[in-house]
Design a protein that fits this description.
The chain contains 2 helices and 3 strands, in the order E-E-E-H-H. By secondary structure, the chain is mainly alpha-helical. It has a 3-stranded antiparallel sheet with strand order 2-1-3, with helices on one face. It is rod-shaped.
Length: 112
């Protein structure tokens, strides 16, 4: 069974498998407040993953640049569509370099 802690408006703010004190109430699985709470948590989780994905993409871009710089791979090893995307993203990063000069591998040189 689930127990919920509610705010003054009746919205669920926390869930537990057991009541943690007298304020926790048993919640009906069909309660619309439960559905709203779970949807809100899912949206938050999705936002966290999207942010993490963006950070990870940045790491992958820097890793690709480093591997090209070290001659571990060649830029032309990538399919044309991937090359275009890498060049587009690199262009965006160069445009923003004045605002955000952070790079995991330092100053990049031309990839080609």
């Amino acid at each position: 069974m689930l127990y919920a802690l509610r705010d003054d408006a009746g919205a669920i703010v926390a869930l537990s498998e057991k009541p943690l004190n007298d304020q926790w109430q048993q919640v009906n699985p069909k309660d619309p407040a439960l559905k709203a709470f779970l949807e809100k948590k899912m949206e938050f989780g999705k936002l966290v993953m999207e942010t993490s994905d963006l950070d990870f993409i940045r790491v992958l871009e820097d890793l690709i640049e480093l591997m090209i710089e070290k001659n571990m791979i060649s830029f032309t090893d990538f399919p044309n569509a991937a090359q275009e995307k890498l060049l587009t993203r690199r262009g965006y990063r160069e445009q923003m370099r004045g605002k955000d000069s952070v790079s995991l591998i330092g100053q990049e040189e031309d990839l080609l």
